[in-house]
Each structure stands twice: as structure tokens, then as C-alpha cells.
Design goal:
alpha+beta; ECO RV Endonuclease, Chain A; 8 strands; globular
């Protein structure tokens, strides 16, 4: 039997969105994790009316502190937050994107081992798994330790990267960052 693939790029936007809303599990957007992150950062900056930092060491400077955004796609077999550098920022905003919702957490980076690798895991801290052979202060962290050690900020709309606003409302972004401000005071 032949498989039929529908190229949504040739569909009118309203039809494409309707199909996506009816069958979200049938769609995949082929963009990298870095591209997803850049789109989310841009959306948040627009809503909060804040500038892009002049460094790549962190994503946002809010409430007199450096904040980093890390995203993971929940539908992947073993989702992880990648390129985590706990020494570069005091807090990490962790967003786990599902097909029907997104979960947001705030993680104090002091809860993560400062050096990557299982042999470097500090007692009582989240293991910073090695991501690249030569990087000792950068790695990846599993989702479950973030859920166990981070502060749950709430469930919000799922992010749809093909939409201009990513399906993440301005009111949700403001609510998330209001919670963050109250937590880090």
C-alpha cells in the first residue's frame, strides 16, 4: 500500500491550523532545539519589552539577575535540557513542551553539580551529564530531577513553533515572569 504524505506548506493557513488542532500528533516541525529556543526567547523578549543580552552566557536579564531558558520536547523518548552551564546564571527557566500543554519550572542552578560527568556529581545535587567530551562545566540534565527540585510555575498553552506568537499568550508570559520575580526577590 502506498503512503500518502500531505505537504502542509501548500495548504491555506486556516486549513493547516484546523488540521493541526484536530490532529496535533500527526504534525512535526523540523527545526532544531536551538531554533525553537531562539523563537521562544524572541517571543518572551517582545512581550516583556526587554533587550537581548550582549552576551551568550544567559538569555534574559530580569529582576537584577541572569536567567537562562532551557526547553525540552516531552514527546521525545528521553527529553533532556541541554547545554546547561550552571556557573553562568543563578536560575534556569525550564519549559517542557507537550502536544497539549507546556510545563514551566524555575530551577536554582546551585542545585546542579558544577562539573559535568557522573564521577563529578556532588552529593544531594542534580547530575550534570556530559554532553561534549571536552566540556566540564556544560552538560545536560534530565527532566525528572528538574520536576523534583525546581519550582513548578504552572501549565500553559503548548508551543506551536509555526505560529507567529508560538501559541503562547502574552498573559501567560506575564504570569510566568511575575511568578519568577516573586520567587527570586
Amino acid at each position: 500500500m502506498k503512503k500518502i504524505y500531505l505537504n502542509p506548506n501548500f495548504l491555506p493557513p486556516k486549513i493547516k491550523e484546523e488540521l493541526f488542532n484536530l490532529y496535533p500528533e500527526s504534525f512535526e516541525l523540523n527545526i532544531s532545539g536551538k531554533e525553537r529556543s531562539l523563537l521562544t526567547e524572541k517571543r518572551i523578549r517582545k512581550v516583556l519589552n526587554i533587550d537581548t543580552p550582549k552576551t551568550t552566557e544567559y538569555d534574559f536579564f530580569c529582576f537584577n539577575t541572569r536567567l537562562e531558558l532551557k526547553q525540552a520536547e516531552a514527546y521525545l523518548e528521553n527529553p533532556k535540557f541541554q547545554q546547561v552551564k550552571p556557573a553562568s546564571y543563578p536560575y534556569i527557566i525550564c519549559m517542557l513542551n507537550h502536544k497539549t500543554k507546556s510545563e514551566w519550572y524555575l530551577l536554582d542552578s546551585s542545585k546542579i553539580s558544577k562539573k559535568a560527568g557522573k564521577k563529578n556529581k556532588e552529593t544531594g545535587k542534580i547530575c550534570l551529564n556530559k554532553q561534549h567530551r571536552s566540556h566540564d562545566i556544560e552538560g545536560q540534565i534530565n527532566v525528572n530531577p528538574v520536576k523534583e527540585n525546581g519550582v513548578f510555575l504552572g501549565e500553559y498553552e503548548p508551543l506551536f513553533y509555526y505560529k507567529d506568537d508560538l501559541n503562547l499568550s502574552s498573559s501567560s508570559i506575564l504570569e510566568i515572569f511575575n511568578k519568577i520575580e516573586n520567587l527570586i526577590k
